[in-house]
């Protein structure tokens, strides 16, 4: 049976969601974050990087959200519920599957890191300088990048029901986490199509079951 090594409040919600969509049995092994908000060392016994998400399936250990989603679809989607038959949709689906972690999430992680520069564990004497530096970087570059990415996503979802096009796919599962982060930080106010898409994802029965299994998702707003 598949074991999902689930870190609280993490990207592994996407894995649970896909397993629920496909009605694949799994067991959940939970891990709590340290005070540093990092994963505990126990996860290194599963995968040397010690990060979540990671699954075990028999003797296989698979990490990285996109790789896990592709593996689960290819092996367990026997009824081809999430198979994209149209070539253009396949290309779009592949793009957004990799875009989520390759382009969008690094910007969101930077924003989170910048927000901590004025807080502990930064020494108190350096916190004012750290806060000023983070605000300057956000104004000069990061916020503009996030706005650009948001406009691209919004334009796409204003023209398509799902990220691949007309059909739900693992690209939607993958994109859910960064867009949920943006929503919880109040950044979807000028992205109505994106907000509608996310609301539709959250209303799916499999999403709700995944939340019941894995617990709520919360983001540090800095």
TrEMBL record:
PROSITE patterns: GST_CTER, GST_NTER
Domain annotation GST C-terminal: ranges: 86-222
One Pfam family cited in the UniProt record for this chain: GST_N
Positions of the GST N-terminal domain: 1-80
Record InterPro entries: Glutathione-S-Trfase_C-like (IPR010987), Glutathione-S-Trfase_C_sf (IPR036282), Glutathione_S-Trfase (IPR040079), Glutathione_S-Trfase_N (IPR004045), Thioredoxin-like_sf (IPR036249)
Gene3D superfamilies listed in its UniProt record: 1.20.1050.10, Glutaredoxin
Stated name of the protein: Glutathione S-transferase
């Amino acid at each position: 049976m598949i074991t999902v090594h689930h870190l609280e409040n993490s990207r592994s919600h996407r894995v649970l969601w896909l397993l629920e969509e496909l009605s694949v049995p799994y067991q959940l092994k939970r891990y709590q974050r340290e005070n540093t908000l990092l994963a505990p060392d126990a996860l290194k016994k599963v995968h040397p990087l010690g990060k979540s998400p990671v699954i075990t399936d028999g003797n296989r250990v698979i990490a990285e959200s996109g790789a896990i989603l592709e593996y689960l679809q290819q092996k367990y989607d026997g009824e081809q519920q999430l198979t994209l038959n149209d070539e253009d949709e396949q290309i779009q689906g592949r793009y957004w599957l990799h875009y989520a972690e390759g382009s969008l999430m690094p910007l969101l992680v930077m924003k989170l890191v910048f927000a901590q520069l004025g807080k502990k564990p930064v020494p108190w004497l350096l916190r004012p300088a750290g806060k000023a530096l983070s605000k300057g970087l956000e104004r000069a570059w990061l916020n503009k990048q996030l706005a650009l990415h948001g406009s691209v996503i919004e334009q796409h979802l204003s023209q398509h029901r799902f990220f691949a096009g007309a059909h739900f796919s693992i690209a939607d599962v993958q994109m859910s986490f960064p867009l949920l982060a943006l929503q919880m930080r109040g950044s979807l106010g000028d992205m109505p199509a994106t907000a509608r898409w996310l609301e539709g994802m959250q209303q799916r029965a499999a999403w709700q079951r995944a939340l019941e299994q894995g617990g709520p998702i919360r983001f540090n707003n800095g």
